[in-house]
Amino acid sequence: MMQKRVPEDTTVAVLMGGWSAERPVSLSSGEGCAHALQRAKFKVVPIDVTRERIVSILQDLRPDVAFNALHGKWGEDGCCAAMLETLQIPYTHSGVLASSLAMHKEKSKIIFRDAGIPVAESKLVELEQVAESHPMSFPYVVKPVSEGSSVGVHIVTSNANGPLAIVLEQRDVFGTHAMVERFIPGRELTCAVMGDVALGVIDIVSKSSSWYDYTAKYAPGGSQHILPADIPNDIYRKCQQYSLMAHQAMGCRGVSRCDFRYNDTPGSDGELILLEINTQPGMTSTSLVPELAAHAGHSFEDLVTWMVNDASLDR
Questions:
Q1: pTM higher than 0.70, yes or no?
Q2: Is 282 an active-site residue?
Q3: Which of 79, 154, 215, 303 has a Cα-to-Cα distance from 314 of 20 to 30 A?
Q4: Residue 208 — very low, low, confident or very high, per pLDDT cuts 50/70/90?
């Protein structure tokens, strides 16, 4: 049963920043969540996380709850959750195993397939091979195996001058391998899960490019969010069904968000493909989860309060 915490008696450490490629987004998420928690009357301590001091800061503070607003590597891949488990500080979002699996796009696809959720064909390819030759027929997508916010994502079409040599300049984002995935044309859809309930479905229309890139996600006016998505009822329900199935199959806790491609182009078969699950979805002013929660009747303050009450150990 979810614990009902008294805001005035509850110290919440909001962890933000960190050192991943998604640091700017995390700072924005953390600031938004901290302000919402303050409005909800919690005792809030914002913490810009650094490698050197985070453990000692948390040991001295001993907060009642750690609100994990970190994105990307270390914050989202289970490492932060493991630290909080070790320190015995209840925390929000998913636990160690679910976070680690969800962050690895190729490993998470194995779980999705086993759960009966459709995913796009993909493979892991050494970075040098991606730069030297086309590893898949056009069009295809090249993306880091363990990053979010569309960091390092490239779409390669038949108009490309040659193989994607730029990835060799992005080793700090990719590492040794990239995930190469079949490109799915059509619409970008997303659906959030809150506890054991799938929320609505948003149709995302990018204003800055032909796809939902970093700028479209975080720049004001970078995209238009159509909620509820104007799609066939069966596709809407499938998005909700697959989102809840992915959340449960991965062992997620708290809030998660699933991203889909829906191919409604002329002559297509209308396939709906799950791209990934986000265990630490953005909580900025342009983010999707607060919008989906509001559509379901939960204010931003209600949402973060629910997340604090949901916080626990052994997640």
A1: yes
A2: yes
A3: 303
A4: low
